[in-house]
Amino acid sequence: MDESDEVQELIDEINFRKSNSKNYEEMKAIEISKELRAIMKFEQESFKKIEEFEKTQKNQDLVQYAKMISRNTTGREIAKLQETYLKKIDEEFLNKK
Predict the structure, then answer these.
(1) In this structure, is residue 6 part of a structural domain?
(2) N or C: which terminal CB in the chain sees fewer CB atoms within 10 Å?
């Protein structure tokens, strides 16, 4: 596989996550917790791949693009999850008293 193809594959994977967003409002706190953990793991793995690409890729513009969309896309999803998670914790745990 061509190196640029690997970067493009990562970009496609990031874009798929963005387009396949879930409705977190309908989930319970425990489900959101699992989603939050999964997206944070995905973000870490993506950045590890990007770091390797930065060392080996000739097309640095494509690598920088992957880095930018990864940071923006996962950052927005994490922020959305955190906000929803905090609301759900309040609803499910704090209001039960």
Answers:
(1) no
(2) C
d(CA 86, CA 2) in angstroms, rounded, equals: 43
Phi/psi for 22 (5° steps) reads -100, 165
Q: What is the pLDDT of residues 73-85, one digit of tens each?
A: 999 999 999 999 9
Both tokens assigned to 57: 């890729």
The answer to whether 67 and 51 have CB atoms below 8 angstroms apart is no
**How many domains does the chain divide into?**
1
This prediction's pTM: 0.82
Helices (H), ranges, 2-59? 3-19, 29-56
Task: Report how far residue 16's alpha carbon sits from residue 20's, in angstroms, rounded to the nearest whole number.
Answer: 6
